[in-house]
Description:
The protein has about 290 residues and is an alpha/beta fold. The protein has a single domain (about 5-280), classed as TIM Barrel, CATH 3.20.20. Helix 6 packs parallel to helix 7 and helix 7 (about 180-195) crosses helix 8. The chain has nine helices and eleven strands. The strands form three sheets. A seven-stranded parallel sheet has the order 1-2-3-4-7-8-9. It has a two-stranded antiparallel ribbon with strand order 5-6. Bound molecules: zinc ion (2 copies). One zinc ion binds near residues 90 and 116.
Amino acid sequence: xxxxxxxxxxxxxxxxxxxxxxxxxxxxxxxxxxxxxxxxxxxxxxxxxxxxxxxxxxxxxxxxxxxxxxxxxxxxxxxxxxxxxxxxxxxxxxxxxxxxxxxxxxxxxxxxxxxxxxxxxxxxxxxxxxxxxxxxxxxxxxxxxxxxxxxxxxxxxxxxxxxxxxxxxxxxxxxxxxxxxxxxxxxxxxxxxxxxxxxxxxxxxxxxxxxxxxxxxxxxxxxxxxxxxxxxxxxxxxxxxxxxxxxxxxxxxxxxxxxxxxxxxxxxxxxxxxxxxxxxxxxxxxxxxx
Length: 290
Ligand SMILES: [Zn+2]
Ligand SMILES: [Zn+2]
């Protein structure tokens, strides 16, 4: 059974006070045709007034408009409808703000928490508007700091999954040095923290045209015994399960045989099947193994 455990609703027709269920229903319809048996919805923590200031800067401040109560009301309705949907949150790791992030996270019964590094020392890793700032920083510093922050995020113990783990490649620029040591050290840190790495297909829809992370990173993670979760990072219904054929092939080549998802912060593993051929019937759920 395939689970798309990284979906955003934020481009939907909701207001700061109301999340219409009909928008989620479009994601579920798309999942059914894409052979995805279960969804994991997240919203970005920085959007919520209750997390204001955790992610510093004007970019986050501009987007901080939504009431967490409205999202939690939606989460409650999802649970009442007994939908195959886990509800979580995608939180930025901010060095030095660990205790504030923990306080925000522990107030709510999330199914899972995705940990992300979108900013390196105030510079947006994936923001086109920050291209000049990234040039000033230099690719070497950007990548080194990105991995250092990733490992600090892992060590914080705040998160279940490290998302889009080599995001700095988003615009297609090659890292100026071999990343194998960074991959290995980060994979070891994930294993030590009992955290999962995410295989995220959004990169296929970005200039780099490649899944996050690089296959060498996935191989290092698999060799270290790190579980993997799968996500499209869809922001619209049409992208649910996008690129999953390529992602499953990549995971199988990297040594993985199952992917994990979370319910109530509990990790559940499901078979990836045995390849493209068997995925012709992947809409059929395999019984999850613990
Ligand atoms: Zn993200
Ligand atoms: Zn995301």
